[in-house]
Amino acid sequence: MDAEQIQTLIAAGLPCEHVQVEGDGRHWFAVIVSAQFEGKRPIARHQLVYATLDSQMQSEAVHALSMRTFTPAEWAAQGK
User: Fold this and answer.
1) Under 8 Å between Cβ of 69 and 46
2) What pTM, to 2 d.p., does this model score?
3) Tens digit of pLDDT for each residue in 23-54?
4) Are 30 and 23 in contact (CB under 8 A)?
5) Neighbours of 11 (CB within 10 A)
6) Residue 14: which residues within 8 A CB-CB, separation 6 or more?
7) Domain 3-77 carries which CATH code?
8) Is the pLDDT of residue 80 over 80?
């Protein structure tokens, strides 16, 4: 599994305005911007993302994923 495949899976399962994934083939880091995160705590946001990768994480095709999640307004406030 590569970064582009993970980005595609996340974007297919969660409406995103921005998804960026980097990693070494087993450990990944993602930045995800989605309106779906509005009003949700970080753990609930992460659960939404993990749900898009469920079978890949269970099979350990994706061993570890750390992420930063933002609403569009939070992302804009970051100057992005």
Assistant:
1) yes
2) 0.90
3) 988 789 999 999 999 999 999 999 999 999 98
4) no
5) 16
6) 32, 34, 36, 48, 49, 51, 52
7) 3.30.300.90
8) no
